[in-house]
Design a protein that fits this description.
Layout: H1 2-24, H2 28-67, H3 70-74, H4 90-121, H5 126-139, H6 143-157, H7 164-189, H8 192-200, H9 205-216, H10 218-233, H11 237-242, H12 261-271, H13 275-306
Helix pairs in contact: 2-13, 4-7, 4-10, 4-12, 5-7, 6-7, 7-10, 8-9, 10-13, 12-13
Length: 310
Amino acid sequence: MTNNISAVSTPRMDEQLKNSSAFSDISSRRKTVDGFASFLIYMSMFVAAIPLVWVLWTVISRGLAPILTVDWWTTSQQGVLLQLPGGGALHAMIGTLVQALITSVVSIPIGIFTAIYLVEYANGNRLGRITTFMVDILTGVPSIVAALFIYSMWIVLFGFDRSGLAVALSLVILMVPVIIRNTEEMLRVVPHDLREASYALGVPKWKTIAKIVLPTALSGIVTGVMLAIARIMGESAPVLVLVGSTQATNWDPTTGPQSSLPLMMLDMYKAGTAPATLDKLWGAALTLVLIILVLNIGARLISAKFSVKQ
């Protein structure tokens, strides 16, 4: 019986070996094309990394010296000539964080809930199609257009003063479509089998979304939110139009001028080319990069802790 089994299995094994050898015999032309395509891919990656590394090296090398002092993190530029050494960026950091916090508190819930509606409830109805169309339009709106819209509505029409709150409102227009589009894509990646299994167990739809769909897509959603925050923190047009420049610290976004890191960089740019002024300019740029880096690391830790995969 053993010999018969061996006799039967040997032709099959020979056929499998023959097929595997046939697939392994790739022509030299295909190997050449594959090698050339791999070369193009690696070269494209290398070329794309050159400006990124160049920018990072320039910002770090030129902005590292001023941020290593304690005064940079604890004092403002109030009472200090911009052309002279001294002072710090505390006023700009506070303004940037306050404006970004207000923008995030308003934009994140609106963006996530809108994306949930488009993916889970719209089912291609008219409201869903209109919303998707408007989101696509808002995604490409320049920041200066959003700033001018808030200026004409909030300041000219309603009569409010220029302030950090007005800046935050314009940033909401820029942040919401980014969050909606990213969250929408992340929710669509979640397999429908998970939803159907939950429905089969009698779980309501809202609880399925809250307990299964959102935790599964949490990592991608958090990444998209942080990219949106990084974008709005570096915007300069809204702060130019909607808030006055100041060298003093202002915690209140509703009254008076309120500086930010992009606005501080612009002030230093207009102040001249003195070495101290350029150091402060590059220091503000590096500070903004570090703040965004810290926020991204924190978001990664949060998503890793609360993700359903963990």
